[in-house]
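Researcher: Here's a chain I'd like modeled. Treat it as a single chain, no partners, no ligands.
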Amino acid sequence: MTSVLVRYHEIALKKGNRPYFVDLLRRNLVSAVKDLPLKEAKALQGRLFLSFADAPNVEEIKQRIERVFGVANFSFVEVAPLELSVLGEKILRAIDGRSFSSFRIETTRADKRFPLTSPEINRQLGALVKGKTGARVDLKNAELTISVEILPNHSFFGFNAIPGPGGLPVGASGRVVSLISGGFDSPVAAYRMMQRGCRLIFVHFHSAPYLDKTSQEKVRELVKLLTRHQFASRLYLVPFGEIQRQVIAGVLRPLRVVLYRRMMLRIAEAIAKKERAQALVTGESLAQVASQTLENMAVIQQAATLPILRPLVGMDKQEIIDQARRIGTFETSAIPDQDCCQLFVPKHPATKARLADVEKAESPLNLAALTQLGVDQAELEEFKFPGE
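Model: Modeled as a single isolated chain. Structure tokens:
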């Protein structure tokens, strides 16, 4: 089968804005397979149809499409005319050589002008398949599901729909800056924001030369993995060691981590404004570590004026790790590294910082100059998928 029928759910609810969402999903699908022999990508009634040249790499196409946000599920299909006899013949040819003990037919009749109802189509096609194979009909746990779709002008059939990631097409919900470390949390947070339609610019803080470059190498690999979902990414690598050194010079030990986090937000926000992004994203999970108590999070967010999105705030560590495994970032995140927040960290950091105390601790610092230092020294790297 050299064609794919893509189905979506959430964007079908967008009413007046639906054409925009559908076209954005179509363009993202084209981006996902642009180096493959794509012939055509067009919108049909409630679906998208992709056609490929002969002998495409079916497994590669599957892997690409199942990562495109906005896709509910998809099938490799064959096109047939709106004649049940011809459709039945094509299905029988397609299952020739397949081995299965049970099957079911699932028909969606999008074109209500077709003279037969969906149950009638199921019965007639099911009788043909049963007569050819001897397999039994099983409507609940069939070994093979044959999906039939009746649309204006054409019918389609395929086998065993493949689930997609759901959500909204990347780009539908604006641009955000995502703070990313080499750990488990922030890549999962980034994934969840892309699933909600955001396009992400990444910012990573490192402490080279005080610490080694492992975290930078990990983040490059994580951004590379995440770029499979949004096809182009920008990563800012911000040297943070000198800024940390200046912070510790005049700040009491317990408040250092809170001040580090506030400086990160200021620098990330400056980059966000340069990139015309509308919000910041963090991988914070409430009460997971000392800096993520409710009191500290409230104080830290006061350093920024842009909204701060925390998609993991109500998740526990095991839930985050489980999702990291599912999305493919676990192995990279699990590699040991030296995170910048490990540098000059007090043994007992403050867990209930007060804004007045923090602002007093910051008062000797030239915050604007430190922010500009971080922005000026940031190195920009760009990633593309597929290929450079």
